Fold this protein.
Amino acid sequence: MSATLTSNPVIDELLAAISRMNREEKQALVKCVQEQLVETEQEEFPQWQMDIVEERLRRLDAGLDKAIPLEKAFTELDRKWASTS
């Protein structure tokens, strides 16, 4: 497996340590890194944005709104933006 990361001393040291780990240790490491990435992603969104997303999901679950296919949403947005230019 080839790494696509730019080589630097920290990455080189990490890769050397990972190469000495067994499969279970590597899986535990991946899980830990994934959890940290999810936490970081959640921190990047302000609470007011999360509140909007949660409200929209509640409305969908309650049947008050309906989802539309992404392609249709893009088509509608393209049409709207074209009419404003």
